[in-house]
Write a structure and sequence with these properties.
Length: about 325
């Protein structure tokens, strides 16, 4: 997440908040939409983990598992010692001079907190990986997906937070050194290893509780970590159950024209991908839908008046998605 933030800056955020696959070539003109097999089982060890590489054209499933979006995700050389990577150690640090000023991202304004230890919130956390590995964070540090760090829209940076997986009770301490996420009402992006230690690499996201840790330079570290927190204005509540998404089954040709954004072996993967695609602005008069054919559940956008209109839309969307959708006729 190349998210260097100096002053009141309008942050441009790409669609990749959840994770990716083994090394492949950079996107090329005319590349097709992805075919993915997203699995939802939890990660419990290094053998289940995805891993870092450059931006890929096609999201897929690495031998280590994990569901993710095009462009981001695990890499090819995950270290074998992830379980032994220690939590971040809270310590007093001066706040960054510029990255704690009010800013806007995707049309929404944010006012960062100016003190630690007075924030507690429950919501959905995602993770970010290879697409941003090695790039600079909002305070100019190099993002390391194998370090215990995180991105947050308003916590002071740098600062420290305890993050607890609500479903399992597992908790880690991370150093917040980046801004984001800004899509889909998520409250925090954790590094790859932090999400791995919380057990949600394969799921892509999880409900967590985030507590800011107050560190007094003159107080013992243990006391600082155990400092009670004060509830602030809540933002995200527990996920709301939604009705099943209808799926059109291929049958007699209708001649309707769509753009195919992805094709998935598992319907759950298609539904997850479709939810993330809904965060991207789409053409007026079109909508996302699921279409099942030849054993794959496809995410389609349309319908379009004709193939030329569909191709023009595909070219316009290519820079947003990292791949070029192709025309599909039902």
């Amino acid at each position: 997440m190349n998210k260097i933030l100096f002053g009141a800056v309008s942050v441009s955020v790409l669609l990749s908040a959840c994770a990716s696959a083994p090394k492949k070539a950079e996107p090329r003109q005319g590349d097709a939409a992805p075919i993915v097999d997203i699995r939802a089982s939890g990660a419990s060890g290094a053998d289940n983990m995805p891993t870092p590489t450059p931006v890929t054209t096609t999201p897929s499933v690495s031998p280590n598992g994990g569901g993710y979006l095009a462009g981001d995700g695990p890499g090819a050389d995950t270290p074998s010692h992830l379980d032994s990577i220690p939590d971040a150690v809270p310590q007093a640090e001066p706040l960054h001079k510029y990255a704690n000023r009010p800013y806007s991202a995707l049309g929404k304004s944010y006012t960062p907190l100016q003190a630690t230890g007075n924030y507690k919130e429950r919501g959905i956390a995602s993770w970010y990986g290879k697409k941003f590995h090695g790039q600079k964070t909002s305070i100019g540090e190099v993002y390391d997906m194998y370090a215990m760090t995180a991105a947050h829209p308003t916590l002071p940076i740098p600062s420290y937070a305890r993050v607890t997986n609500v479903a399992t009770g597992k908790a880690v301490i991370v150093r917040v050194n980046d801004r984001g996420p800004f899509l889909h009402s998520r409250i925090m992006d954790l590094s790859y290893v932090a999400a791995y230690k919380l057990g949600y690499i394969n799921n892509g996201s999880a409900e967590v509780e985030v507590e800011s840790i107050k560190v007094d330079a003159n107080a013992p570290l243990v006391a600082a970590v155990e400092t009670p927190v004060v509830q602030v204005v809540p933002t995200v509540v527990a996920p709301v159950l939604t009705p099943a998404i209808p799926v059109e089954i291929a049958g007699k040709p209708t001649g309707k024209i769509y753009l195919q954004l992805g094709a998935f072996k598992a319907q759950q993967g298609a539904e997850s991908f479709m939810a993330r695609m809904s965060e991207v602005s789409i053409d007026s008069g079109t909508s996302l839908s699921l279409y099942q054919k030849s054993g794959l559940t496809r995410v389609h956008l349309g319908p379009y008046l004709n193939k030329d209109a569909a191709r023009a839309a595909a070219s316009k969307m290519q820079s947003k998605l990292g791949f070029k959708p192709f025309v599909s006729v039902h």
